[in-house]
Amino acid sequence: MLHSDYPEQTCSIARSLEAVGERWTLLILRDVLLGTTRFDDLVESLGITRTVLARRLDHLVEEGVLERRPYQQRPERFAYTATPKGRALGGVLTALMHWGDAYYPASDGPPRLMLHRGCGGAVRQQLTCTVCAERVDGADVDAVPGPGLGGRDLHRTGV
Amino acid sequence: MLHSDYPEQTCSIARSLEAVGERWTLLILRDVLLGTTRFDDLVESLGITRTVLARRLDHLVEEGVLERRPYQQRPERFAYTATPKGRALGGVLTALMHWGDAYYPASDGPPRLMLHRGCGGAVRQQLTCTVCAERVDGADVDAVPGPGLGGRDLHRTGV
CB 3.0–4.6 Å: which of B69, B101, B129, B141 could bond A121 by disulfide? Predict the structure, then answer.
C-alpha cells in the first residue's frame, strides 16, 4: 500500500500533493519539461544533493510522472522525460508561475515567458465553462460536493 | 530578509513554492476558500496538529495570502479569510484538483465538482493565447527566458 501523507482527506488536491507535493518535486518536473533531463545536469541546475534528487526522481518514476532511460553505458547514466501524466502537470506549473510573476515580481520582469508557438502571444491559464464555453471568473465558480465524496462534506459553503 | 527555500533559483514557480509549497499549506487554503475559516474547524477538517496549523496560518498571514480576524473575545478566537492574493491561487488548486481527478480517480467519481454559477457547466482550466484568443495546447507553448532571468538560462530548450 502506498504511503499516504494526508490519510483522512478524500480530495483530489490532497491526492495530487501526495504525488508531487514534496519539496523540490515540482521544480524537478519544471526542469525536465524545460529540457534538462540528465541526472548530473539536474543536480547542477537545481543545486540539490544527489541523494535527495535520486529519491525524488525514484518517486516520480513510481508515480508514472517521469520515465527513466539510460543514455550512457559505462558508467551507466540516466536521463528522465515526462510521461503524458507528467506533461499534464504543466497547468499546475503555469498557474504557480503566473501567481509568482504577479505577487513576487522580479525587478526586470518575468524570469520566463510562455508564448503561443507561431503566434508569439503570451499564454495564460483561463477558467472556461465546458457547457456555455464562456470565460469564467473565479468568483462565479461553485465548488460543490461530487459523487466521490460519499456525503462527507465538512465544509459549510461553496467557494 | 525572508528565508529562502530555493536560494539559487530565479523562477516564479520556486518563489511561489516558498510561499505556499510547505506541507499542508495548500490544503489549508483550499479549506478556507471552501468556507472553513475558524481555527478549531480547520483542526477538525484537516486532522492536523494545532501547532503545525498555527505555524502555517502565521506564514500565510505574513505572506498576505490570508487575513486573520477575531470572531470571539473571551477566550479570543480567530478566523481566516483569503485575500485577493490568496484567491488568486484558486487556479493552482483547480489545476491540482483536475490532475488528481484524472490520474487518481475515486471509484465513485470526483470528490468535488467546480460548476459555472447559473449555467451549471463544469469549469476547466484552459491555456489561452492573450493575442489570438485561441485555446492553446500545452505542446504548442514555448517557455522562453524572460527579462527577469538576466541571461542565466541553464535549460537547453523550450518546453
Answer: B129
In chain B, residues with a C-beta closer than 8 Å to the C-beta of A107 are 148
Is there a domain that residue A56 lies in? Answer: yes
pLDDT single digits (tens) B20-35: 999 899 999 999 999 9
In a domain, A45, yes or no: yes
CATH number at residue A45: 1.10.10.10
Nearest by CB: A141 against B105, B116, B134: B116
**Total domains present in chain A:** 1
Is B62 at the interface with chain A, CB within 8 A? Answer: no
In a domain, A21, yes or no: yes
Rounded to two decimals, the ipTM of the complex is: 0.90
Is A87 exposed, middle or buried (CB count within 10 Å of its CB: 0-12, 13-18, 19+)? middle
- b/e burial code for range B116-136 (CB count within 10 A of at least 16 → b): bbebebebbbbbbbeeeeeeb
Mutate to test the interface with B, among A9, A107, A114, A156 (most CBs of B within 10 A): A114
For residue range B114-124, list pLDDT tens digits in order: 999 989 999 99
Measured distance CA(B42)–CA(B53) in Å, rounded: 8
The reply to whether A107 touches chain B by the CB within 8 Å rule is yes
Please tell me if residue B121 touches chain A, with a CB cutoff of 8 Å.
Answer: yes
Q: Is residue A3 part of a domain?
A: no
| Interface touch B35/A97, C-beta < 8 Å | no
